[in-house]
Write a structure and sequence with these properties.
The chain is α/β, with parallel strands linked by helices. The chain is built from 7 helices and 10 strands. The structure holds adenosine-5'-triphosphate (ATP). Keywords: ATP-binding, Nucleotide-binding, Transport.
Length: 226
C-alpha cells in the first residue's frame, strides 16, 4: 500500500509502496529518522488516512476508517484539562456505548494497570508529565484495543521515567496480549522494547527483523546514521 500527501499534485512525501503484516499479539517497533514516514504509517494503521493504493485489513476484513479495535496514542497526549482523570478515560470510551458500571470498572482497571489507582478525581494540571503520559496510556488501554499504536509516546519524558513507563508497558503487553506497534526514533529503544523491528527510510521498509537478530550498528547502517 502507499499513502502520499498531496499525491494529486505529484508530491512523493509520505509512505510506500510497502507491505506490512502485524501479527496478533506481537510487539513491533518502528524506527526511522525524522520524515521517514513513521507517523504516516500509524495514521494509516489507525484508519485515519486511507491509502491511495492497497488496503488496510484487520483479521482479513478491510478497514474503511477509524475502528474501535485500533487505538492511537500520540506524543501530544491530548488530555482535556477541564476534565478529571476519570473523565478523560470515560471520554475515550464514549464511542463504545458501555453501561455506567462497565465504564467505571474499565476506568479503575486501566488506572491500576498504569500504577495510578486512586487518581481518578485528580485534575490533569495536578499531574506530572510522566503521570499524564500514563493517563494517556490508561485511556487507550480502557478501550481494550486489539492493536495499540503508540507514536513516540514517551519522548518528552526524562530518561528515568521513560525507562520506567516502557517497562510498565512491556508488563501490560505481556499480561494482556495486546498487539503493540511502537514508533520511536531512538534505535536503542527500538531494539530493547520490541520483538520485531521495522526500519523506515524515505517511506520504505529498509529492514524488518526480530530484534534479537539486529545490532544497533546494523540499524544505524541501514538508516544511514553511522
Ligand atoms: N500533513 C502533511 N502534509 C504534507 N506532507 C506531510 C504531512 N505530514 C507529513 N508529511 C510528509 O510526509 C513525510 C513523512 O512524514 P511523517 O510525519 O510520517 O514522518 P515521521 O517519520 O513520523 O517524522 P518525525 O519523526 O519527524 O515525526 C515527510 O516528508 C513529511 O514532510
Amino acid at each position: 500500500m502507499a499513502y502520499h500527501y498531496n499525491a494529486r499534485r505529484g508530491q512523493r512525501a509520505g509512505l510506500g509502496p510497502l507491505s506490512l503484516k502485524v501479527n496478533a499479539g506481537e510487539f513491533l517497533t518502528v524506527v526511522g529518522p525524522s520524515g521517514s514516514g513513521k507517523s504516516t504509517l500509524l495514521s494509516v494503521l489507525a484508519g485515519f488516512l486511507k491509502p491511495q493504493s492497497g488496503v488496510l485489513t484487520l483479521a482479513g476484513q478491510p478497514v474503511k476508517g477509524p475502528h474501535p479495535a485500533l487505538t492511537l496514542v500520540q506524543q501530544e497526549h491530548a488530555l482535556f484539562p477541564w476534565l478529571t482523570v476519570a473523565g478523560n478515560i470515560a471520554f475515550g470510551l464514549k464511542s463504545q456505548k458501555l453501561g455506567r458500571e462497565e465504564q467505571v470498572r474499565r476506568t479503575l482497571d486501566a488506572l491500576e494497570q498504569v500504577g495510578l489507582s486512586g487518581y481518578g478525581e485528580r485534575r490533569i494540571h495536578e499531574l506530572s508529565g510522566g503521570q499524564r503520559q500514563r493517563i494517556a496510556l490508561a485511556r487507550a488501554l480502557a478501550t481494550r484495543p486489539g492493536l495499540l499504536l503508540l507514536d513516540e509516546p514517551f519522548s518528552a519524558l526524562d530518561a528515568r521515567t521513560r525507562t520506567e513507563i516502557s517497562q510498565e508497558l512491556l508488563g501490560i503487553w505481556q499480561a494482556q496480549q495486546v498487539t503493540v506497534v511502537f514508533v520511536t526514533h531512538n534505535l536503542d529503544e527500538a531494539l530493547a522494547l520490541g520483538e520485531r523491528v521495522v526500519a523506515l527510510r524515505g517511506g520504505q521498509v529498509v529492514l524488518d527483523a526480530p530484534t534479537g537478530e539486529v545490532s544497533p550498528e546494523q540499524l544505524r547502517m541501514v538508516l544511514d546514521e553511522s
